[in-house]
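Researcher: For the record, we're logging two predictions in this thread. I'll number them. Prediction 1 follows.
Model: Prediction 1, sequence and structure:
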Amino acid sequence: MKIAMFGKMFDEEYDGLLKDIINILRENGVGVTMYEPLWKSIAPRYESYECEIYSDYKELAESADMLFSFGGAGTILDSLPLVRDSGIPVFGINTGHLGFLSSVSVTEALTAVQSIISG
C-alpha cells in the first residue's frame, strides 16, 4: 500500500501530527509519497525524512492507493483534480477552519490512520 500526502500550506503546529502519521505508516510497511509543493514547504523541518515526490495526476495515479489531504474543505477540493477518475479515495484531515468536507479532525487522525491500515 502507498499513501499520497497533499496539502497547500502546512502550519508548523501540525508538524507533530504529520510526523506521527508518517511514522505509523512506515512502521506498518506503508509507502509514502508527497505532493511536491507540500514537500518544498516542509522539507527544511523534515530533514531526516526521505520521501517520494509526485507533482501531477499521472504520477499520483500510478503510485498511490489513497490520498491524505491535510487542510480544510478548500484543500480537499483542490486535491480532487489529482485523483480525477483514478478511483483513489481521498481522506481529509481537517487542519483548516471549517473542514466540513474533511473525514476527521486532528484529534481523531491517528486513530483513523490506524483503522485505514488495518483495513
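Researcher: Logged. Prediction 2.
Model: Prediction 2, sequence and structure:
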Amino acid sequence: MTLTAKIFRKLFGHAGKAALFAMALTLTACDSMIYDHDDDCDPVYKVRFRYDYNLKKADAFPSEVNAVTLYVIDPATGEVVWQKTDDSEAVRQEGYMMDIEGLEPGDYKLLAWAGDGHNGSPHFTMGTGTHDHHLTARINRAEGGIVNTDLHRLYKDLDFEYETREFPKSWGTHVQTVRLMKNTNDVHVVLQHLSGEPVDPNLFTYEIEEANGSMDHTNQLTDDETLTYRPWRVRAGLATGFVPENIEESKFSCAIADFTVGRMMAGRKMWLTIRKKEQPAKSRAANPDDNLVARIPVIDYSLLVKGHYENMPDQEYLDRQDDYSMVFFLDDDMRWINAYIYVNAWMVVPPQDTEM
C-alpha cells in the first residue's frame, strides 16, 4: 500500500481508499485520452498576450493595450475557424489570458489585432471575413489622403511569428503566447530659434508624407495612396537647454507640432516638410517655394540615432521605437540651419541626400 493510500485510509477508512481508487481511475482515463463521457478530461486552451517588442523589452501589455481580437486560422486553408474580441477590464489586468472555448485539438495559426485603434475606432477600418487575407487594417483619411488626428493606438501580432501552433489533445491546460508590436508612432517636431528668441508655432505649416496607410494580415504595407499627415496639435512650448555653441543654459520658447503616423518601414522615404505660411512678396515670382524651411526623410534621420541599439536591425529598431522628437534650429530668416538637428536628443549630421 502506498503512503498516499495509507494516509487516506487513516483519515477516511475504507471510504477514503475507494475515493482514492476512483480518482486514480479518472487520472488514468484522462492520461489515456478517454474523453467521450468525461468533460473534465477535455484539454483547456488559453492564449496570453505580450507587448515586449519595444526598446525596453518589458511587457507593457497591461498598461497600454485595452482590447484585443484573436483569430484562430486553419494553416492549410487560411480559413478563420475561431475568433473572439475582448475589451473588458480583465484585459488590463496582470496575467490576463483569453479562454479559447470550443476549439477542436489540432494545429493552427494565431493572428491578432489589438489596441483601441482596432475595436470600433473612427481612425481605422479593419477588414472582416472568413480568410486570413481579409484581416487587414487601413488608416481612415479625408479627401486627398489627409490625416490630422491623434490616431488611436494599433497593435499587431509579430508577422514573423505567424507560424503553426499545436493545440494538443492531452488533458490539462495548454497556453500559447502571442507577442504584439505597435503600428502607430508619435512624432514631435520642435522649432527653436538659434538666438533663443520666441518662435510662433502658427507661422508655419507641417506635413509628413508616406504611402503607409494600408496593412495586410501579416502587417506588411500594401499599395495605397500617399497620406499627408498633419499635426493633430500645434503649440508653443518653453524649455531649458543649450543653444548650439552656447555653453550657457537658458530658457527658450519653441514651436511644437505633434503627429501620429502609421508603421515606419526601413528603406522607404517618409518626408517631413516645414514651410512658412507667408512667403515674402518680393520673391514669390522668382522662387515659388521660397517659404520652405526644411524637408527631411524622417526614417533616414531616425535610424542615424539608434545609439545603444546600433547593432539592432533597422526594421526591428523602427518597430520597437514608437516615439520620435526632432529639434530644428532656425536662423534670422526662420529657415533651418542644417548644421543643427537633434533627433531623440541626439545631434545628427544631415545625410547627403537631404532635400532643402
